[in-house]
Records
---
Amino acid sequence: MTSDRRYLLERVDDAAVVQLYADGFASLPLREKVLTWHLYLAALSGRDIYYDQRHELGLEMRAVLEAIVTHPEGIDGKVLQEVRRYTKLFWINSGPYNNVTARKFVLRLTKQELVDAAAAAVRSGAELSRRRNESVEQLIDRLAPMFLDASVDPTVTNKTPGQGRDILKESANNLYSGVNASHLEHFTERYGLNSRLTADNGRLVEEVYRIGGRYDREIRRIVGHLRDALPFATSSMADAIRALIRFYETGEDADRVAYDIAWVRDQESPVDTINGFIEVYMDPRGVKGAWEGIVSYVNEAKTKDIQALAANAQWFEDRMPWDARFRKPDVAGVTARAIEVVVETGDSGPVTAVGINLPNDQAIREKYGSKSVSLANVSEAYERSTPEAMRVEFSWSREEAERAKAWGGFAQELTTAMHEVIGHGSGRMAPGVTEPPHRLLGEQYSSIEEARADLVALYFLPDAKLVELGIVPADSHEQIVATEYEYYVRNALVQLRRVREGTQIEEDHMRNRQMIVNWLRAHTSAVEARQRDGNTYYVMVDAAAFREGAGRLLAEVQRIKGEGDLAAARDLFETYGVHFDPALRDEIVARVDRLKLPSYTGFVMPRLAARRDESGTIVDVEISYPCDLETQMLEYSAFARRDDVLEPPTAAR
Ligand SMILES: [Zn+2]
């Protein structure tokens, strides 16, 4: 069944569109299926919040695009083709900014062509929500600079705008409106994570994301579906859902803390959800949360290995290669699981991570621990959709390419698990440092934290402990280490394909990976840059030197976090992580394009449908795979307007 499955569905510019499968769902008990169903609807209900957070015109732009795509009659074929290309990218990236590079991409049409297409769609019956008395032409006039002009609001998140420029002013997201970073110097936010901050004649106002506040309509729907889920949840999960509802009602930080704690305490439920304002990568200050919704169930078989890591978290903590004052004396409740994702929306999809570790609140992590998951079906879909040429093109030797083929999937899943379970969960702040690290490190925090987690994984990967725990086969250990180290250094080159403009890297995970490899090149003999036939290769030549260097760098990165040493963090990333040689990037892009290799992936999620009996009771929840981005995205957008889109009327069942 799995062999003739379609993973790679289509290519849109440098993006791949891949179908995600969730095989175990059909055999879950009915109660868990019904629970998943309600959480699924809750996850879809918040999707538009994220579009709005990305840019204040994001939803209006999407409405125009979807009107045209669904009403193509009478529109010039070339124009329509271009609108479709752009719309697909827009859906994959939840708005007009590339998810990886943070830069805007544009529609390659003239304003008149766009006006004509929108007018034709309206003539064919498309409904466009316009401002009062606004003509189609005026609407397009208002949106045109965002659609067509790359120089208007060019970057969604700009953490390093250059000397004398303001990180908030230079970032086009909608987490702030009219606010400069300097406004914040004498202002204490009460709703740091969950508000939009606006400046009204110099007076700062927090528009709180809660019922009765900003995103009232979406949050009410989320809460409605969460309430529907309650009767089907385990008691510890029901506690967490009730706490989440309370937080959505009040928006108060104390309720967010209560929710985080209740969520971490629920370690047993086979089904889980992440729903809310979670990750802070979009905010250049690293404070405001982007909305996301994830629903998943546990993959028992793959969870065994990860739990072996988690159960031994203290063993690893005691051997961290950093100063003893940063070691946690008792690592609390690190849990880790492999999960199968059913849906990811908002900040978490269609472009998704392969591992998640939450909550982000450092104080809660230190006291209550954290939950770590690796997204097993996402990793599998990545692996199954990666073209063979990707491994071969950037490998120095045939052996390297063969190792990558044999062990790449395994090594990367293991490294991801270690990153999440013993990486993010580890370490503590220096005695006497009471401010949380994200406040001390500001725009450098996320990159430092990602570097720390990666380095923990890289440092312990060769450790015999992994064999002892039964996670790694002894006779292949060396090969697995080589595979991962080789992949890691190759990636520093290959990832440059994602940043097709400019000469600096914005995304935190990319910065950290660039930094680590460049630091190793400068300070160890582990990595060599070589040339062959005009092509550049990064070659991992000494695994022992690699590990030693990773340990040395990890000690420094932990010190930076633990002391909140912003100057050192800035220096580290400015020297090794942010800037790159555009000529090298151009070479990589040319090689990748010659082979038609994708730069990033957007996933089409599984689709759920509830089946009910005469009385309206759900008797089954069926899973299917749309295998089409457009179908799914239009359905999601329709669901934002009408609740019944995903449930056919009784007669149709
Ligand atoms: Zn991470």
---
Amino acid sequence: MITRSGIIEKALSLGFGDVGFTTAEPFDSHRECLRDRQEEYGWAESAGLALMAGVDPKSVLPTAKSIIVLLDEYFREAFPASLESNFGRCYLDDDRITKDGLAVMIKAFRSFLRDNGIDSRVPFNLPHRVAAARAGMGTFGKNCLLYAGRRARQSSWILPITVVVDREFSPDDPTVKMGCPDWCRNACIAACPTRALKGNCAIDPRKCISYLTYFGKNITPRELREPMGMYVYGCDICQNVCPRNRPWLSQELPVNQRVAAKAKYFELSALLHMDRDYFMSKVWPHMFYMSHDDIWKWKMNVARVMGNSRDDRYIPELVRAFEENSDERVRGMIAWSLGRIGGSQAGKILEGFLKKENKGMIGEEISTALNSGS
Ligand code: SF4
Ligand code: SF4
């Protein structure tokens, strides 16, 4: 009969950072939280995230008796600085499509369970962080993230993976609580550029840059374009400023060669001009929250970032993209970006655009960009 210690030994040998156990009881307080905050989380159900169903582990495995939580330390190696500036780190080595990294480890772990007569499921919609805290693996920060209790220098650069199993194991003591030091004056809340963090370990996901970069439906509202800064996809600001993450961030780490090898595909200019084939072969396998129908969103985000860079070397790229795109959300953002870069060259180009496009949303964006005084 397989024991807890046998499972822990196997998980660690496969490369997981930590292992914890909790019961398969429903996550009642999380259900209440989702119910109380329908306004903020209602979109998640229509996006197919099924968060409400995920509060009951038996919804994925009716014979569920325990949850084994595995910890992946996704920031064990450094990422190229060019990528860290524009992308959340947790997305940089995501193999959920390519299935050649973490997925191999999870598969091997489940095979081990199966060989020992244990049925398992790895659902996407369980509250993974809450499950990890209930399994005694870490505490929360006011940025709503989980901080490891034993690994990764107790930082938040971790990904909990929940494995629901049909075998009962004694649970670990829960650590479901806030772990922030009193002396930290809410650095994450102050640093969040879009005011998504609400101060009581709550977040309005609709205001978070991560949500805005891949779930936003229209052209990014003007008042958010500057605050969203240099992020194309995801955001790490509330983790970068956190003193609980300083010990990890203070190290020299070897470079992640898998990620370094694909960095060229994520250069801003390449993304701004990509076609569907490029997107499907180079981008989507690694960052897949947006489908090929949403390439416009990628281009709009990249145009915004180019504008926020205030680097006039991007002007020719933006002009070319204005000519080659028909989507008005992309073209409108390009106009904004030229205004943000500013200077006489960008001004003359905007004046030329306005002669050809002086109506509708694009005309308004061009006029506003010209009057922005940059
Ligand atoms: S990820 Fe960025 S936008 Fe989202 S809460 Fe943190 S700092 Fe704010
Ligand atoms: S920045 Fe401060 S308040 Fe925010 S998660 Fe880190 S320690 Fe907690």
